[in-house]
Each structure stands twice: as C-alpha cells, then as structure tokens.
Amino acid sequence: MAVTRIPARSAAKSLFWDGDDLVDVIGGLRRWQADGTEVSGRISWGFPFDQAIVSPSGRFHIMYTERGTKAVVLAGDRIVRELNRSFSHATDYDYPVATGRLPDGREIVVHCPDEYNVLQIDDLESGRRLTTGERQPQDVFHSRLAVSPGGRHLLMAGWLWHPYGIGWVFDLIGALKDPSTLDGSGAVPLEEAVAAEVAAACWLDEDRLVMSADDEEPSDDETSGKLSPGRLGVWSMAAGAWQHRHRVTGPVGTMIARGDQVVGLHGHPRLIDPSTGAVLEEWPDVTVSAKNESYGVTHELTPVAALHPDRQRLAVAQPDHIAVIHLPLPHGR
Predict the structure, then answer these.
(1) Residue 192 to residue 168: CA distance in whole angstroms
(2) What is the pTM for the complete model shown?
(3) Domains held by the chain: number
(4) Domain that holds residue 7
(5) Which of 183, 279, 300, 310 is 20 to 30 Å from the Cα of 268, by its Cα?
(6) Quick check: bond before 274 cis, omega within 30?
(7) Helix/strand/coil for 246
(8) Residues 282 and 257 occupy one common structural domain
(9) 296 within a domain of the structure (yes/no)
(10) What angle do CA 20, 25, 31 make, to 5 degrees?
C-alpha cells in the first residue's frame, strides 16, 4: 500500500492527529498541515520529555520521560500539573501511565505516583485521588497501562523481578469502591492462562484484548489451553478464555489496535490478523526501533506513531520525515 512521506525539519517526538493535521505536542505543538506544510512549535517545555499520550476527549495530553520519573499534564499549551513516579528501577522500565474515560464520563489518569507497585486512579482534570484506603501491593513493576475503551478495565503488561514479563487485567470500577483490588494479580484468570513471558498487549474493544508472548522458549504445545511462547492470543473478557492463539513470525513489538487487527511495531510496521497470526501487510522501508518488552537495561524508545480516527492512516515518525501509511481496507469493506 502507498506511503506518503511528509518532510520534517527534525524527527517528531510525539504524533497526534488533529483532523487531517499532525501535531507534535512534545515539539512545542509543532504542526504539519494536511498539505504537508510544517508550522514551527510555539513553546519550549524546558525538559527532555520523550513520550506522550492523549486523553479520550483530546482535551488533555500527558508528556513523560519513558525511563525517567517526571511527567506533566497539559491542556493545550497550559500545564495543568506535574506527575511523578518512584525512582526504583525507573531507568529499567517504561513509565506506567494511561488515560481513559469511566462509564460515567469522567476522564482519569492511572499511574504509580508514590510507589512502583501501587496503582492509583486520579481524576484527570482536577487531580483528585479516586483510590484511597489500605493497600497491600504485590512486588510487581507495573508498565504499559491501557484503559479499556469503555472504561471498565485496566490492562497491564509489566514485569516481576527476574525480570519476567506478565500481563494482568484489573477491574477499574471495582477499584473505585475497593482500591485493594488493584493489588492482586487481576480480576480475570490471565495469570493462570499464560505459560510464557508476556511482551506486549492492547485492547481490541471492550471485551477483547491481544497479548503477545516472547519466543525465547519455543513451544508447539497447544493442548494446555494456555498462551505459549511465540504466540499471539486474543482473550475474551466475557468468555474468560482465549478465542485465538496462533504463532506469529518474529517479535510483534508495541501494538496498536485497528478494529480486529493490530499493527505491530518491531523493526518496521506490520499489519497482523490476531485471529490467525497472519501478517497481512508490512512496510520494511519504514524503520522503527526493535523494541519488544517494556523493560530491560538496554533501552530503545517506543516508536512514535499515531493511527488516524478513520483507521485508514498510520503516521510513523522517521528521522527526517513522517511516513503516513495508507492501510488496506478491512476485509469485507
């Protein structure tokens, strides 16, 4: 499929779609208009942020240092407040932070502001803590947090001390009543359903999530009903079971959901059907980091990429341009 290349004076540090424009919030709200014209940023943050996320409404952004302790909540070009996380092994794993919208409409931020192993939920706009009470956390390093589209669950792809990658799901609604529900191994039996080291995970929709398992110990065992090494699995929250578990060629990397498909960002973008493990399309001339897990002493930045709301265009930052990949239409459309 076609790739449009938009010149950039320097690599974008973050990318978000604003209509058909692309915006680099970390770059001081630098903008590339729909015709490719680059408009310089109008602000300097004075701190080396290297990653950013956006709230569901688009009103707020959070910039952070992926292997540091500092983050900041923005509303446009206004700093709303600063966030922090524990220094404990902060240089060894990605900053745990996610935004989402609860079923009642409130936008939240989920992070670990006080201790590396204690998840907290705050109202995003006011900063008010929504999880207060006694806690008994496990010794787990939370990372790659993702709130489900309907705001009912929290997905986490982090690690235990070895290190060993894990993937758990928590009940966000239950946590508002009893924060200690964030201290266990999750609300669904994923811990028992995975027989491999988890590398990455993402939501497809409110019911289904995709999880990739490392391939360090290849296995052809499909009889246990568990996700085994080197496979990509689709888990259904309603069924409480794997819908699909298939081997996929090579590491998947960071995943971006696109309807029933995922884009894997490891070395270069690949469009994958998680129901079969098949690579539907790939773009080897669009280079990204070969990052897989969220942890490791050797750090490679998470690729900077953004899927347009129409799900037909994927923008990927390159050293001197932005590659906009025109994705193939989903089957049946």
Answers:
(1) 10
(2) 0.95
(3) 2
(4) 1-37+301-333
(5) 310
(6) no
(7) strand
(8) yes
(9) no
(10) 40
Can you give the length of the chain in residues?
A: 333
Pair 165, 189 in one domain: yes
What is the spatial distance between Cα 203 and Cα 155, in angstroms, rounded to a whole number? Answer: 8
**Which residue reads 């341009």 in tokens?**
321
Chain segment 103-137, per-residue pLDDT in tens:
999 999 999 999 999 999 999 999 999 999 889 99
Tell me, yes or no, whether 201 and 320 share the same domain. no
Kindly state whether residues 101 and 70 are assigned to the same domain. yes
Asked if residue 12 and residue 96 are part of one domain, the reply reads no
Contact call for residues 210 and 257 (beta carbons, < 8 A): yes
Is 159 within 8 Å of 201 (Cβ atoms)? no
How far the first Cα of the chain sits from its last, in Å, is 16
Amino acid symbol at 217: E
CATH number at residue 107: 2.130.10.10
240: left (phi over 0), alpha (psi -120 to 50) or beta: left
**Distance between CA atoms of residues 103 and 81, nearest Å:** 24
What percentage of the chain reaches a pLDDT higher than 70? 96
Contact 110, 97 (CB under 8 A): yes
